[in-house]
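re: ur question from earlier - yeah i can do the single chain one, its not a big deal. heres the input i used so u can compare w yours
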Amino acid sequence: MTRILVVEDEESIRESLAFLLVKEGYEVQAIINGSEAFEAFEKFDPDLVLLDIMLPGLSGVEITKKIRQKSQTPIIMLTAKDTELDKVLGLEIGADDYVTKPFSGRELLARIKALLRRTGEVISVDGGLKVGPIEIDQDRHQVLIRGQETSMPLKEFELLLYLTQNSGRVLTRNQLIDRIWGSDYFGDTKTLDVHIKRLRARVEKDPAKPKYLQTVRGVGYKFENKATE
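and the output i got, formated as tokens:
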């Protein structure tokens, strides 16, 4: 049974979420405050976390950072805030999706199912992974695209690996630059855009209409493993 950890201090929302998720067949543990959330995460070992940003004890931001230090478990943030800055912050710290209150139960369930489905479609293989038309052997620094071996420079390889490891998740420009070029990088984002353009030329059948390496306007990029050719 798929396990979902709910961290929400508002009783009416917490109870409604628990009822909705149990009705859908999920195993649920509901936590009231942030100070208990990480301990519950380690003991319950959930498949997905629904996490309010504003919590007593530790905030949702702090909890997400702690989870990301040891796990890539999908996280959906729940918040009353709806500014672009708040959305980018949630993605920057490692959240996979962002739902603004008030939200419909149907919308939330659709997002949960989509996120769980995407997470399950990245297949681990010896030394690497397989996702969409791409197979990556990290140990051998080898990339197969539609079965054909493709050589590429180190930064392109690292960028493709990171995007596919986080398949289905939106990654901000700053996240990608910090990860691939380092936090002390002082160039502009054009370097990232050029690398994405080169990867699209390798991965996409039609780079002008990318299906896998998608741009998320105003935020960054994501690798969409649900694309069909």
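The first strand starts at residue 3 and ends at 7. not sure if urs matches, ping me
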